[in-house]
Design a protein that fits this description.
Elements: E1 2-6, E2 16-21, E3 33-40, H1 53-70, H2 92-98, H3 104-107, H4 122-133, H5 136-155, H6 159-164, H7 170-181, H8 199-202, H9 211-229, H10 234-246, H11 257-265, H12 272-277
Helix pairs in contact: 1-2, 2-9, 5-7, 9-10
Length: about 280
């Protein structure tokens, strides 16, 4: 796996993991290879490229995708690694990995001053943990609104009646859903956010935006398995980690995601861990 951390001129923004070589018995490809593009901060003068905390989270996130690709045990190319994984589960490994950015031993394993080697000051680490829960409730309401609005438009909205005035317009639907999920931030009459909400009509998330929040539920609950045994208990953490590797990271798209999760966690996911991680419980 090769990584591109610093921004390259003319490279598109964002970050992603992509497949270089996929595992496939039919094509005699036994060793999967992935690459990560992370678009980190470029060097400035004589100062090397130094990662912001958001860029560290992004690296951990994309590395989660890379792990699922590289650790797959599936031999059929179409379901090996991330291939064939249902849309509402494909972000589980990536969002799971972000949790380690708030684990003290993990962070202090690399968070050192690039010149002096001094560790990250304790008060700064505490602030990093605090910012994770800042406005978490409002962000959750925002994502719930977007997910439900997406489903409402793709399941119940009648565009013919909306166009003729016999039924709700898309903006009426937006206001109705906002009244339920974010009544403190109702859209103005002039609001045309939906015209630019490309995720649900040009970005592959049509009737699937909910998967962002559902993946958060699954990833938080998966990390909860490590918390349950104690993050400072290395032997137990290794045991749970091996089980995570042998289920979530290795089964690919050939096994239904809920079955994969239950093999790892022993039950279906629940939102308790996510609410706790967000400071809402």
């Amino acid at each position: 796996m090769c990584n591109s951390f610093a921004v390259v001129v003319a490279e598109p923004g964002g970050a992603w993991m992509d497949v270089c070589i996929g595992k496939s018995e039919a094509c005699d490809q036994k060793i999967p290879v992935a690459y990560l593009t992370c678009n980190g901060s470029p060097p400035v003068g004589d100062t090397p490229s130094l990662m912001t905390f958001n860029e560290v989270e992004t690296l951990f996130h994309e590395f989660g995708h890379g792990l699922q690709h590289m650790l797959t045990k599936a031999n059929v190319g179409d379901v090996a690694g991330i291939n064939g994984v249902e849309w509402d589960a494909v972000e589980l490994p990536s969002q799971f990995m972000e949790n380690w950015c708030y684990d003290r031993p993990t962070v202090y394993g690399f968070a050192k001053h690039y010149e002096t080697g001094e560790p990250l000051p304790e008060e700064m680490f505490e602030k990093l943990k605090e910012q994770k829960t800042f406005n978490a409730g409002m962000m959750a309401c925002r994502q719930l609104l977007f997910g439900q609005l997406d489903l409402e438009l793709h399941s119940n909205f009648d565009p013919v009646k909306g166009e003729s005035g016999e039924g709700e317009s898309i903006f009426d639907v937006q206001k109705r859903m906002a009244a339920k999920y974010s009544p403190y931030n109702m859209p103005l009459d002039e609001d045309r956010f939906l015209c630019g909400f490309s995720h649900i009509f040009a970005g592959g998330y049509a009737a699937g935006y909910y998967s962002y929040k559902w993946a958060e539920v699954m990833s938080a609950d998966a990390f909860g398995a490590f918390e349950d045994v104690g993050l400072d208990n290395e032997e137990k953490v290794k045991e749970v980690g091996l089980r995570f590797r042998d289920t979530v990271l290795s089964l690919g798209g050939g096994v239904e995601p809920m079955d994969v999760f239950k093999r790892f966690r022993g039950r279906e996911p629940n939102p308790e861990a996510l609410l706790r991680h967000n400071g809402l419980a």
